Amino acid sequence: MTTRSLISIVIPVRNGAAPIARCLDSIMALDYPAGQREVVVVDNGSTDGTAATARTYPVTVVSHPQAGVARARNAGIRASQGEIVAFIDADCVAEKDWLRELLNGADNPTVGCFVGPIAALDTRRLVARWVKDRELISQERLLSSHPAVAATGNIAYRKAVFDAIGVFDEEMIAAEDGDLFWRMIRSDRFLVRYNRKARVRHAHPDRVVPLLRRAFTEGRGLALFRLKHRGDLSRRLTSLSCAAAGLAEIIAGTLLCPGRIARNLLQRKPAAQGIAYPLLDKAYSICRSSGVCYQLARRACD
């Protein structure tokens, strides 16, 4: 990016005093000129010391007490002054050259969105390692899916995109980032640039219960995404009966887990991985599919 205008970095956070400090430490260490960037932290109704922690840094802190990450990101957009708005999650750590690499190609005004990879911050715990190995938070996997989507943990949009297609849908309890990205793609007005050197590191879930809660919420968001964009998808993806049949098939498939575990052990895979991975695979799939069914059932009852 040869002609530098102000870039806004928006970070939504709720009850994350420790993660926001770690994230902001990395933002302050960026090799991008401080005078050419602003940082907007949106405190989304925290009840701990998150806002106080953020105010110890040279950033703008916006209070938005109504819970919802889409609402928080939109509040950040409204408070931002930059021509381009970069998003990073509070549980992410940016590498020193993150913003500079993310904006590579920004001199081309037809590029409306810049996406960078999301790597794992710490994989010492088995659950976090499983998340990494299964590529659950992988921009490459999301971008190659259909419909193509991208996570807002490492992304930047021109303000012109919001002017053209709107901002994050505040009715989405999850998958609001994929919804915005797909709406931009469907508009056929902007190009997307993937800058693989613009890396952030994300604190993957490292405990089973938070992981499965996340899976259920992701399933609900996926159902809302499918319903909103049903015209771009197969009808079976918005069918409650098809979703319920899929869930039943996944549950029935748990009978195969002992055999899979036995094969893993016979292949001399590490015991923790050979036993835990198949169980996590099944538990995650059940929770995610349950979230899809729950949301489709709620919509059917409306």
> What is the overall pLDDT average?
95
The SSE order reads EHEHEHEEHEEHHEHHEEHHHH
What kind of oligomer do you see?
A: single chain
Treating each run of at least 4 consecutive H or I residues as one helix, how many helices? 12
For the CA atoms, what is the radius of gyration? Answer: 20 Å
- Helix share, percent: 40-55%
Count of strand segments: 10
The name of the CATH architecture of the largest domain is Alpha-Beta Complex
In spatial order, strands of the major sheet run 3-2-1-4-8-6-9
Give the N-terminus to C-terminus distance in angstroms: 49 Å
Indicate the low-confidence ranges by residue numbers. none
CATH domain class name of the largest domain? Alpha Beta
Tally of discrete structural domains:
2
Structural class: alpha/beta
- Looking at the structure, what is the overall shape? globular
Largest sheet: 7 strands, mixed
CATH homologous superfamily designation of the largest domain: Spore Coat Polysaccharide Biosynthesis Protein SpsA, Chain A
CATH topology of the largest domain: Spore Coat Polysaccharide Biosynthesis Protein SpsA, Chain A
Strand content: 15-25%
In terms of topology, how is this protein built?
Elements: E1 7-13, H1 17-28, E2 37-43, H2 50-54, E3 60-63, H3 69-79, E4 84-88, E5 92-94, H4 98-102, E6 111-115, E7 118-120, H5 126-133, H6 139-143, E8 154-158, H7 159-165, H8 176-187, E9 191-194, E10 200-202, H9 208-228, H10 240-252, H11 257-266, H12 271-301
Parallel strand pairs: 1-2, 1-4, 2-3, 6-9, 7-10
Antiparallel strand pairs: 4-8, 5-10, 6-8
Helix pairs in contact: 9-12, 10-12, 11-12
